[in-house]
Design brief:
Layout (H helix, E strand, L loop, with lengths): L8 H13 L22 H7 L9 H6 L16 H14 L7 H13 L5 H21 L3 H37 L11
Helix pairs in contact: 6-7
Organism: Balaeniceps rex
Protein name: EVG1 protein
């Protein structure tokens, strides 16, 4: 094998010394001297082979000791009035100027909204019953009355029951008001 590899006599003798000692063969065999040359500069490939195969990971204790697992505390910021911001942006886009509206106008709008009375629940119920009757009539005209009749009649009866309860409460309130206004109340005198 040594003859086929075309080694010099020095290289053959060098390798045979290793074999006689029972050592492993060297990776490089220098051609002319018995001394191994000291490399003046090691190539980067040679440095890469010295790196360990394990990646350099930090232990869990080191990670937990740091600030990696600490959450930042929530710090609330001052809230902005979004409605005022919207109005301001609308004014800027409409007029090109940042115009501050007077608070007097806003208070007038608010008082107008307060003046609108709430619709009476009894009247709402009357309207809802009428809507259901109209819808049932339309469905019967289209031939779909059987589908909706039971549902709508049930809803109408529920609305009517609620209307009766409201009516009883109102009539009791009226009786109380009337008995308070009239001295002596409804007491009938048997001697009359």
């Amino acid at each position: 094998m040594m003859e086929e590899s075309k080694l010099t006599r020095f290289q053959r003798r060098y390798l045979m010394d290793y074999v006689k000692r029972g050592d492993t063969l060297p990776l490089q065999c220098h051609p002319t001297s018995s001394k191994e040359p000291a490399p003046a500069f090691s190539p980067p490939v040679y440095q890469l082979s010295r790196l360990s195969a394990k990646p350099h990971l930090r232990p869990a204790k080191v990670c937990q000791a740091g600030d990696a697992y600490v959450r930042e505390k929530f710090k609330p910021r001052a809230r902005r009035d979004l409605e005022n911001e919207k109005q301001r942006l609308q004014n800027i886009l409409a007029t090109g100027k940042d115009v501050v509206e007077h608070k007097v106008k806003q208070t007038q709008v608010q008082t107008k909204e307060e003046e609108i009375p709430e619709p009476d629940r009894f009247e709402e119920l009357v309207n809802e019953v009428q809507e259901r009757k109209d819808f049932l009539a339309e469905m019967e005209a289209l031939g779909q009355g059987k589908k909706y009749r039971r549902i709508l009649l049930t809803e109408i009866s529920q609305k009517m029951r609620e209307m009766e309860i409201i009516d009883k409460k109102r009539s009791e309130e009226m009786r109380e008001i009337m008995t308070k206004d009239i001295p002596g109340g409804n007491k009938s005198d048997p001697h009359d």
